[in-house]
Amino acid sequence: MLEERQSVCTFDCPDTCSITVTTDEGRVVKVRGSTALPYTAGVICTKVARDMEAFVHGPQRLLHPLRRSGAKGSGQFERVSWDTALDEIGARVSAVIERWGPQAVLPLNYAGPHGLLAGDSMSLRFFHRLGASQLYRRALCGGVRSEAWAGTYG
Question: CB–CB of 131/96 below 8 Å?
Answer without folding.
Answer: no
